[in-house]
Amino acid sequence: RREPVALINLKKKNEETGEEELASRLDHCKAKATRHIFLIRHSQYNLDGRADKDRTLTPLGREQAELTGHRLASLGLKFDQIIHSSMTRATETTEIISKHLPGVKKISTDLLREGAPIEPDPPVSHWKPEAVQYYEDGARIEAAFRNFIHRADVKQEEDSYEIFVCHANVIRYIVCRALQFPPEGWLRLSLNNGSITHLVIRPNGRVALRTLGDTGFMPPDKITRT
């Protein structure tokens, strides 16, 4: 519903000027800027924690977040905001990253919390959540995709650079949806902790994947996928 033709009422088109007026109104509704989306997977965390508040970053996880923050800062980009999952491991990862990006506002959201986006195809034997999870989590993660992954607003004049700190399942699903690949294939992708995935959304709505799960900026002994 962000295609320019969907933003105008064709029934109100002036019959006298016809296509000329339509073209003018379409131009007025076209996006002008490119959005750069940086999807960051949280760092390694304590898997033994029973509740979310107990699943804090490990010492290695904190190192990974420092490395990710340093990498993002080294890009020399003017980041607009950091939107992060409200889960503890994502919040802690964001706090460490943000130290390297002073002045960039942080926004917490429940939409980006980890979950089961859609039943994977082919299925896997080691991970079988209850069917109800796909309905509850799937609707929320799809809402996150629709809310955050889209072409720039028509009022946006300059290219934007945004960071989203969340979770592997969420990022993998978003990548499949953004590239118009079958979303059921999300589990075929693998992401390291603290990795950077870079999506580019052009004004015409076309999406390109610049990097997927990049951790080349980390020493080999600091890379994990847990």
Automatic annotation (TrEMBL):
Name used for this protein in its record: Serine/threonine-protein phosphatase PGAM5, mitochondrial
Keyword Membrane recorded: yes
Hydrolase as UniProt keyword: yes
Domain of life: Eukaryota
Reaction equation(s) it catalyzes: O-phospho-L-threonyl-[protein] + H2O = L-threonyl-[protein] + phosphate; O-phospho-L-seryl-[protein] + H2O = L-seryl-[protein] + phosphate
Keywords from the named record: Hydrolase, Membrane, Mitochondrion, Mitochondrion outer membrane, Necrosis
Location in the cell: Mitochondrion outer membrane
Listed EC numbers: 3.1.3.16
SUPFAM superfamilies attached to this UniProt entry: Phosphoglycerate mutase-like
Enzyme class: hydrolase
One annotated GO molecular function: protein serine/threonine phosphatase activity
Any one GO BP annotation for this protein: programmed cell death
Pfam families named in the record: His_Phos_1
GO cellular-component term (any): mitochondrial outer membrane
InterPro entries: His_Pase_superF_clade-1, His_PPase_superfam, Mito_Ser/Thr_phosphatase
